[in-house]
Amino acid sequence: MFENYPILSLITFIPLAGAFLLIFMTRVSNADAQEQLSKNAPRVALVISSAVFFLALMLTFDFDSSKSGFQFVETTKWLGGGIDFRLGVDGISILFVLLTTFLTPLCILASERSVKSRMLEFMVAFLILETLMIGTFVALDLILFYLFFEAVLIPMFIIIGVWGGKNRVYASYKFFLYTLLGSVLMLAAIMWIYSFSMVNLGDATTNIEVLINELRIPKETQKWLWLAFFASFAVKMPMWPVHTWLPDAHVEAPTAGSVILAGVLLKLGGYGFLRFSLTLFPNASLEFAPLIFWMSVIAIIYTSLIAYRQNDIKKLIAYSSVAHMGFVTMGIFTFNTQGLQGGIYQMLSHGIISGALFFCVGVIYDRMHTREISFYGGLVKRMPVYAAFFMLFTMANVGLPGTSGFVGEILTMIGAYQVSPWIALGAAMGMIFSAVYALHLYREVIFGEQINPNLDSIKDMNTRELIILTPLALLTILFGIYPSLITDITAVSVENLINNFNAAILLTGN
Predict the structure, then answer these.
(1) What are 50-107's pLDDT values in tens digits?
(2) Residues 340, 345, 346, CA angle at the centre, nearest 5°?
(3) Contact call for residues 66 and 493 (beta carbons, < 8 A)
(4) How buried is residue 490: exposed, middle or buried, by Cβ count under 10 Å (0-12/13-18/19+)?
(5) SS3 of the chain: helix, strand, coil, percent, to 5
(6) Residues 430, 326: contact at Cβ < 8 Å?
(7) How confident is the model at residue 30 (pLDDT cuts 50, 70, 90)?
(8) What is the 8-class DSSP label of residue 239?
(9) Angle made by CA atoms 321, 327, 332, in degrees to the nearest 5
């Protein structure tokens, strides 16, 4: 249906066009009109982001999951010298596009009441952020990918720095500097690959398909290039020990910022490992896999223990995100079907569950203006509907069978067990610790004794909050019961990735 239409360009740039529309509308000079425009900005942004989600949903239905290559490919001359504006999706990237376009309208809907100032500017920043996130997943040119990948930092930096908490400036600069410095090495590696392609392929190119299928980089050189890309992707995930920017960013970010940070931005690093580390540097990936395994296990166990000691609900969930990303990296570097499918599934599932948990934190924060665990207690009596939603997402975060959180974790552990039973055992220990901190949080906030009289006036969820959390709850259960909705789409692309990886290893004699 969409093969002859620039559907990916539309999905990518409609939010950006909407942001410019809002900016253009600010040119009105009437003060009353300015105030009215600010009030209407969330509705305009919601309509635009909802339309983009509808297009992404239609694109997913039209996607042929039996094909392993990229589909809906668009190519336009851009910078010259083999650097083109090239977009496309496969069975892996299309689901991340869908996740991004699904979460964005929910974030905008949640922000209409929680953001108290500069509403129009907030919506502009969020729409620009959506364009850049989608662009990262659909880019089929290495330079274009880097442009989107790094530009994501700018609107997120502004969202945290302008609309965040009291330490927002510190958190925003820490987020920006950590992630930017990690990417400087990747840029140098991209320049080397561009020059190397001129020598080995006859023409310089940054076409990702050509680089993956035709470029063969010497094994010794692969190590240095792999480390350069790793520096960027590991920080973006974030992996232990370069994870310390994440709790600060989450704590200070507004609710919508935390949701999109956990739901989408953390997935950019995992997507980079899948798209580039395994395909361009297979020998180096195989050599560094043991390091990744142990870093992943340490992240799962260590950050779970740290999470248990937190008294800020957001910070606890932030540390749990680091632990869950440990399952992702562990699964990706098993190089087998179960591990890779599990890693992808875990990223998508975590995007839904962690996003829902941060929305849940926002519900009580908007009422009481604090995230301290010790402030709450006995909410089940005052907010029974909220308690039910919070229980579902807490159980999913733990990995309860029947929820999407279980599927991703069990698949990654099955994949890891085929490589090393000890790695799988370490990850299983992390699952136990995750149950400890998650159930501790739920008991203290929901079932604990209500000793704070301020909670006497707290009200249960309103219609807006139900509209936001209900689809997240339904997807958490649906993907837990029927995981093939995801695995059927990714299966052929994952199989093709593994086959190409194994063929490259055999070709170089490793």
Answers:
(1) 999 999 999 999 888 888 888 888 888 888 777 889 899 988 999 999 999 999 999 9
(2) 100
(3) no
(4) buried
(5) 80, 5, 20
(6) yes
(7) low
(8) P
(9) 125
